[in-house]
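Recall that a protein's primary structure is simply its ordered list of amino acids. Everything else, from secondary elements to tertiary packing, is in principle encoded there. The following example makes that idea concrete.
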Amino acid sequence: MHPSLARLSEFLVDAKRQTYAGLDDDATVSAPLLPGSKQLGYRAGDLSYRDIYFGMKFFVGQETMQASEGVIWSMSYAGGVAPTVVDRNEFLAIYAFLRQALLAVGDDRPFRGPPQFENESFRYVNTSSGDVAEFHGEEQIHRGGVKVYGLRYSGGLLR
């Protein structure tokens, strides 16, 4: 039996806060399933979460949630910093800000971050449609009015 949508959302928020958003690559599994990937994992009770991605400046990945009966939810995503971002310090600042925005994720839309988040010169905007059962969306980060990062995502319950 699948967990309720409320339980699924609550677990996703916890998992995201305990992996990339909260710990960055410190949450990386030492032996990822796929060579060359980064893999993050979290488990609570009978639910487990896995995030596997490739790349850094531009990356693609997939998150999955598993219950005792197997994988029940998934989200695919792709995005990264703008090609004009070449300075390492700027690149690191953008991803540090992204993690701050992702920590503000809520149970009502547990896909990525909140609809809007601002800090100093950065502004995060996340637009999405649907709910945890089936959704798609896009997030962007602007610095001084210039887009410096973008990502698209989609997913939902597996049937």
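Residues 5-157 form one domain. The mean pLDDT is 90.
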